[in-house]
Amino acid sequence: MPYVGKTPSIGNFQVCDAISVVNGQAAYTMQVGGVNVSPESANHMIVSLNGVIQKPTDAFTVSGSTITFASNLVTGDVIDFIQILGNVLDLGVPSDNTVTTAKLSDSSVTTAKLNDASVSLAKLTATGTKDATTFLRGDNTFAEAGGGKVLQVVQGTQTTPVLTSSSSYVTTNLTASITPSSSSNKILIMTTLTVSNRASGGEMMCTLYRDASNIITQGSQNGFNQNFNSAGRQDATAACVYLDSPSSTSSTAYTVYIKAQGGSCESMSEGTTGTIVLMEIDA
Predict the structure, then answer these.
(1) Which 8-state DSSP code applies to residue 85?
(2) Which of 23, 198, 245, 276 has fewest C-beta within 10 Å?
(3) What's 138's DSSP letter?
(4) How far apart are the C-alpha atoms of 245 and 234, rounded to whole Å?
(5) What residues are paired with 31 via a beta bridge?
(6) Which residue segments constitute the domains of the chain, with CATH numbers given?
């Protein structure tokens, strides 16, 4: 409720008792009615010396009830008056919801003023899903841990040889199927098989099919090969590592195909086992 009439003054305004100058002395005790008084600070005082108003802290300082001038006073100097302007205003405790943002100075809320338990994840403006399987990244988004981790592994084997002299790709029946959990994930394929030639200087070409599509496009022969440079039967190892992007969540089959480049060749030499391993890699 506002005041009716003149607003009352706040603080205890006092004029100190007269002080006699002592030659060569700078410090004097301030009293009001014979009782020592202690101003809040030099800035809460008006001091007149020889008819000149003195500048607080430069011309004089205060400590308790003692005023000390910047230089010793001498006989003939006159302390005209010392006016104490009153006490620092104590605002007390503000009412709830009365301190607004505008009342806070910039950078006034320091780390030391924050309660450790008050800054929770709920206070962060992060995006994404927050749960037991995600973490908060440096860009303030929640994401699943990892990326590039192996989600599943499938293996296929074949021991039955396939003999061919065809210059077109034929299946070796060395195959395995995998169902990706996400269309953005990749499939790492690793194959190993022991192959044989049946003619001098023959060459066997190998490739990988995803379902009905040839997915290896390296080199002019569209595959990986194994050369045989001398006459008679020879065995050698043909291997391939290939990273595929099927862009699918359906069951996908990967199969090794072969073809002969001159003469004939055989996959999975007798008594050996061909292997194909499929690994789903998290995007």
Answers:
(1) -
(2) 23
(3) T
(4) 35
(5) 36
(6) 14-84 (no CATH), 150-281 (2.60.120.760)
The pTM for the full model equals: 0.49
Residue pointed to by tokens 């194909």: 276
Q: Which residues in 78-96 are b (16+ Cβ under 10 Å) and which e?
A: ebeebbbeeeeeeeeeeee
Closest CA relative to residue 48, chosen from 72, 18, 22 = 18
- Phi then psi for residue 147, to 5 deg, are 100, 120
- Mean pLDDT for back-to-back runs of 10 residues, the chain (283 residues): 54 87 96 92 94 96 96 96 77 79 83 79 77 80 77 94 88 95 94 74 80 74 52 70 94 92 75 92 86
194: which strand partners? 237
Q: Which helix (H) or strand (E) holds 145?
A: none
Q: What angle do CA 229, 200, 242 make, to 5 degrees?
A: 55
